[in-house]
Specification:
2 domains, alpha+beta, six-stranded antiparallel beta sheet, 2 helices, transmembrane, signal, Secreted protein
Length: 186
């Protein structure tokens, strides 16, 4: 195997291992709701303007969605508000300071941290949490039954582990084979 081939193989490996264009996946959870209920979910973001803050929302909030590509949220349900799920289409607004372990603890910055889903909807369930809504905790609201369950806990946010793609393992075994063949010929 020539030096040129090895360099090409290493360049391909570097391309396979390179992270996506600043995209990151975060998981979040909020405990403390009545009857032990919880909110959990994830979001995929790209800090497009390199501000260190994700700031997205509906036109009603005067924001846009150019920094988020996926969002999911699940409420486990309790005796006050039934279980529900929301996705990116339900997200009304989100402000999160990247690399913070919590959402809702920041009171400084251009926008105060918050999550709001279905905030302007007329049916279904709402969720809102964070300093942008006047407190550290959160609330889920059942619009049909006019019922609300509160939490006084912060939203805990953790970066998701990024799995190594199968193509990398396959490429690594082929590269090891090439190196082994070269050593055997020498």
């Amino acid at each position: 195997m020539t030096t040129k081939s090895i360099k090409l193989a290493l360049a391909v490996a570097a391309a396979l291992l390179a992270p996506g264009a600043n995209a990151a996946v975060y998981n979040f959870v909020q405990t403390g709701f009545d009857d032990g209920a919880t909110i959990s979910g994830s979001f995929t973001v790209n800090d497009a303007n390199h501000s260190g803050q994700i700031n997205v929302g509906s036109a009603n909030f005067g924001m846009n969605f150019n920094e988020i590509s996926a969002f999911s949220l699940s409420f486990s349900g309790n005796s006050i508000v039934a279980a529900f799920t929301h996705n990116l289409a339900d997200l009304s607004a989100m402000v999160y300071n990247l690399n913070s372990p919590y959402l809702g603890d920041e009171i400084n910055g251009a926008q105060q941290e918050l999550i709001a889903t279905n905030y302007f909807g007329t049916t279904g369930f709402d969720y809102y949490s964070g300093m942008g809504f006047g407190g550290f905790g959160g609330a889920v609201f059942d619009k049909a039954n006019n019922a609300t369950s509160y939490s006084y806990e912060l939203v805990s946010v953790t970066p998701a582990a990024v799995p190594v793609p199968g193509a990398v393992w396959l490429f690594g075994s082929v590269l090891t084979g090439f190196i082994g063949m070269k050593q055997r010929k020498a």
